[in-house]
Predict the structure.
Amino acid sequence: MQRKWMMLGAILTMLSVAIGAFGAHIVKEHIDAKALATYETGVQYHMIHAVALLIVGLTAGQLGESKKLRWSARLLLIGIIVFSGSLYVLSTTGIKILGAITPIGGVAFITGWLLFALDVWQRGKGRS
């Protein structure tokens, strides 16, 4: 689990940098300021949650694997795809209906962080 999520986190972090650079150098010439701000929000959340996958992987290495950690990682990945992905497509195509699925990605992020917190809290209870 540790290796898998750290590798995926590293790849997604790299993709976030590439997508951000693409937006800064190419996309911004073709979209308005509001759409660019939406695109940049996607990049920001993408990067934060790709780093979060690295943290989940490191935590799995320190504390061991668990069902909550696995689901935390899965939900963070789903959040990147749905939240950031929908913002990328919305901002570059103007397809407004995609704004309706963006909150699903946000819920995935929130649930992923909650599971991570619960896992660390529950496993740390007996160690203090």
Remarks:
- The chain has a mean pLDDT of 94.
- The helical segments are 2-25, 33-63, 67-93, 102-124.
- Residues 33-63 form the longest helix (31 residues).
